[in-house]
Design a protein that fits this description.
Elements (H helix, E strand, L loop, with lengths): L12 E6 L7 E8 L4 E9 L3 H11 L7 H26 L6 E6 L2 E6 L6 E5 L2 H8 L3 E3 L3 H5 L8 H9 L5 E7 L2 E8 L2 E10 L2 H9 L10 H4 L5 H8 L19 H11 L5 H22 L8 E4 L6 H10 L8 E2 L10 H14 L4 E2 L9 E2 L3 E3 L3
Parallel strand pairs: 1-4, 4-7, 8-11, 11-12
Antiparallel strand pairs: 1-2, 2-3, 5-6, 7-15, 8-9, 9-10, 13-14
Helix pairs in contact: 1-2, 2-3, 5-12, 6-10, 8-9, 8-10, 10-11
Length: 382
């Protein structure tokens, strides 16, 4: 349930901040969260300074060893950017800072290694700096507790999806297509499953930028000019990540431009750039064919798309085709009450609420972690 509210004094007010794997912008939302309801107050998006965006992309899209000083510099610069954006958002929204319980700050993922010998997930955007700049309580580092409990540390979105979009005695699915694609399946507010199934926009964006199309392929217009190369697609589908059974998670440190060139090298046949782009789009939509076949026990109109991929008209049309439904019948989370652009940020506002109220969660069906855990670390102004 969402209700717009402009009351001067608010309770249970949380800020959620998200800059996703596509590194397109910083999304900030303000929401009121209650036991069984959720009031949307305001949302806005803030563009990255181009030099900072470039630095983030360089350190988050590389398989090589990271430069610690470069990471630390980005950590501080991004935190400063987050803090200023939050202050500007609060001012624009005419919100009293004293009404804000906490800020849920995801940070920018640089490395996600849940299966390493010493597993970890690294996000930059120091929460303590953000807390000092804003004067607010900040909850950050949401993934470490889950990894320390034996989990993948991702995805965490199913917790919010089930809370906000769940309907009694109804099985629903939210598929988030950000840089990485993941799904949440839930009945009412009970989570059934949730996992990363592979690349969403990350390959499309990286290949478009490399070929001078832009930071992304708007509405999939460039992909539309290409043709799916079925042999190349088969090679992509044979990547080792595709054969890992859930729980599983991944990141842009795995699926990136290096990965693209590796696969092109393995294919060892000449491909037109637009055909590669079209094949990447088919890779993203291919999951829905399997998904359709696995979900015949409930109606396909119980699936909704969120994330930046929902804005790609050609991608959405191809997803509808994969599900054997008309384009107009493919839902986004807007049909369920929340614009796809704000779902992830709202989710971290919700996770901040859980942490502030010391509510532990069981993510065993999603990440594979053991027992109940509390997600996030609390940072208060020095």
């Amino acid at each position: 349930m969402i209700q717009s509210q402009a009351t001067a004094t608010m309770k249970n007010l949380y800020i959620g901040v998200m800059s996703g794997t596509s590194v397109d912008a910083i999304d900030i939302v303000a929401v009121e969260i209650f036991d069984d309801s959720f009031n949307f107050i305001n949302a806005d998006s803030f563009e990255f300074e181009e030099s900072l965006r470039k630095d983030i992309l360089e350190i988050s899209r590389s398989n090589s060893r990271l430069n610690k000083s470069a990471v630390k510099l980005v950590d501080q610069k991004l935190a400063d950017t987050y803090g200023k954006a939050i202050n500007e958002f609060i001012s624009r929204s005419k919100i009293n800072k004293s009404d804000i319980e906490a800020v849920g700050l995801h940070g920018q993922t640089i490395l996600h290694k849940p299966n390493a010998e010493n597993p970890f997930s690294l996000q930059v955007g120091d929460g303590q700096i953000v807390s000092n700049i804003t004067g607010l309580t900040v909850i950050d580092d949401f993934r470490s507790a889950d990894i320390n409990a034996g989990g993948q540390g991702a995805p965490l979105a199913p917790l919010f999806h089930a809370f906000f979009f769940g309907q009694d005695n109804e099985v629903r699915v939210v598929v988030n297509i950000g840089g990485i694609s993941n799904e949440s399946t839930f009945e009412g507010r009970k989570i059934i499953s949730g996992y990363d199934y592979g690349p969403g926009n990350v390959l499309l964006d990286a290949w478009a930028k490399y070929n001078g199309i832009g930071d992304y392929d708007e509405d999939g217009e460039w992909a539309k000019t290409g043709t799916v190369n079925k042999k190349f697609l088969s090679l992509l589908l044979n990547d080792e990540f595709m054969f890992i059974h859930p729980p599983k998670s991944t990141g842009t440190d795995y699926f990136n431009l290096d990965w693209i060139f590796q696969k092109i090298g393995e294919f060892n046949k000449k491909l037109r750039p637009e055909d590669i782009q079209r094949t990447f789009l088919e890779l993203t939509t291919g999951f829905f064919v399997c998904f359709r076949d696995e979900t015949l026990d409930f109606r396909l109109n119980k699936i909704a798309i969120s994330g930046g991929g929902s804005k790609n008209k050609f991608l959405m049309s191809e997803i509808a085709d994969a599900l054997l439904i008309a384009d107009d019948d493919l839902l986004t989370t807007a049909d369920w009450g929340l614009d796809p652009q704000w779902v992830e940020a709202a989710g971290f506002a919700y996770l901040a609420c859980l942490r502030v109220n010391e509510i532990s969660v069981n993510l065993s069906k999603v990440t594979g972690s053991k027992g109940k855990i509390m997600l996030g670390n609390i940072k208060r102004p020095d």
